[in-house]
Amino acid sequence: MADSPIAEGAPQGDALSSAVESFKAAGIQMPRLDAEVLLSGVTGRDRANLIAEPETALTAAQSRSFATAVRRRLRREPVAYILGSKGFRYIDLIVDPRVLVPRPESEMLVELALELKPKTLLEIGTGSGNIALAVADEIPECEVIATDISADAIAVARANAVNLELDDRVEFEVGSLPEGGTFDLILANLPYVADGAGLSPEIRNWEPEVAVFGGKSGYEIFEEVLGELPDSGIVCDTIGLEIGHGMGEVVSELVEKAGFPEVTLWPDLAGIGRVVVGKGRTAPPESAD
What is the pTM of this model? Predict the structure, then answer.
């Protein structure tokens, strides 16, 4: 299928089956799901329709677009980049190789915000803006500042804010920490993959390295950000950090050292520690007295 486009008028069921077989042969992890999502994106039909009405014919334009999408996926380009968008909670986001593809695990940071209902939020390392914008979408009274060291990522995040009509409550800044400020909550999904770690081609060849790798051990970005926090002039009671598998103990120690005496580890649905939550830091340590 990758070498010859589907003929005009081909049934969508046949096109789907052909794509699935090509993806299986290439070792793609979820061949049927990826094929269905791509064909749905090309045709504008939902996945239920693709299955319920396999004889529906593709137009010439749809056939060409789907063949192109399949060729791109066979090169292991992420589905989200091929379609140019990714759903996250209740919002749809522009995504491309300038930003990390939003992951379901990051929804736990939004859930922390929903539990605490902050009026002010700082997000560090916003990428596409998925966490900041989801919080703003679900907590209308919350004002958000979100940062990222990548100017390209900030450009994508700002475009998403405009598209979602949330740009009046979410401010994006290039950099790591803002110069001071008082926030009810800090959230961060920092890069936490160790340099040289084995990754799928989708991540290794396509997603931005600055958003994936956290240094030789994977902890360097955490050490940098949490090390700067005490002298930043930022006042905040609670912080939530998404982490990788097995990182809970080390990151918890870094959070406590940054001035948050109450530290807990939130597990995901698989029981893996996924979010470190620190509380009790109402002022920078040097001015706490």
Answer: 0.91
